[in-house]
Recover the amino acids of this structure.
């Protein structure tokens, strides 16, 4: 036996869907207003109305970014017990992150290092679990008032090409826990972003080989580490003030 829903049932389902979409678009500050609107019953012969996505209002925008607040950030990942991979990122130009807007170039630097907390920091290399990095890439995702998402910035490289030729390296990649200080990229630049961008999130992907036991070439295993960096973007007018 087939069944069909009544017009009233369809209205309830449509209003519920519209309410969920409106909450996700409008933010918590407008929940009460939307809820009051849902309480208004429609006439029985009115057609069902579906909500359409609308751009976000400027006053509702918030993009949480420790990097923007401090001008730098340290992102840490445990790649083994007491073995820490650290990604440091800092604003290079402009150094004042309040001036990072959609139209001007935004330059940052970053470094990747590793720390074996099983031993003293000054221990010789044979006492430390070695970590090599063989690739690093950065992709981006915008947050825009229009609701669109774009990927305007990309970076990809073999870390061995980014440092002087006398750094310690092998077929596993660039050695991170050496006296030379791991991987350092002083400058890379995010250029123009879509005009309605209010935030961009960078995803760092690092392929590494981790030594399981210090000074044991047969104990290496490979893994990929991901870190995410939210960056708030000011309007061009606000950055000029």
């Amino acid at each position: 036996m087939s069944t069909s829903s009544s017009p009233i049932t369809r209205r309830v389902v449509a209003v519920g869907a519209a309410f969920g979409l409106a909450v996700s678009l409008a933010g918590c500050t407008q929940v009460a207003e939307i809820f009051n609107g849902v309480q208004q019953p429609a006439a029985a012969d009115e057609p069902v109305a579906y909500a359409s996505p609308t751009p976000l209002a400027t006053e509702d925008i918030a993009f949480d970014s420790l990097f923007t607040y401090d001008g730098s950030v340290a992102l840490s990942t445990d790649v083994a017990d007491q073995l820490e991979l650290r990604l440091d990122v800092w604003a290079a130009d402009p150094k004042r992150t309040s001036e990072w807007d959609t139209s001007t170039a935004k330059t940052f630097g970053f470094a990747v290092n590793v720390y074996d907390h099983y031993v003293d920091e000054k221990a010789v290399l044979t006492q430390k679990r070695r970590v090599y990095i063989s690739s690093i890439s950065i992709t981006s995702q915008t947050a825009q008032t229009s609701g669109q998402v774009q990927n305007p910035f990309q970076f990809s490289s073999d870390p061995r090409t980014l440092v002087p030729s006398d750094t310690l390296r092998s077929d596993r990649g660039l050695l991170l826990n050496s006296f030379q200080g791991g991987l350092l990229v002083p400058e890379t630049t995010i250029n123009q972003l879509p005009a309605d961008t209010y935030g961009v999130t960078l995803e760092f992907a690092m392929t590494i080989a981790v030594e399981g036991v210090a000074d044991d070439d047969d104990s290496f295993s490979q893994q990929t580490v991901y870190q995410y960096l939210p960056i708030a973007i000011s309007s061009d007018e606000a950055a000029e003030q």
Remarks:
- Helices lie at 7-26, 31-38, 66-70, 236-240.
- The two ends are 68 Å apart (CA to CA).
- The CA atoms of residues 41 and 69 lie 46 Å apart.
- Residues 1-44, 48-52 have pLDDT under 50 and may be disordered.
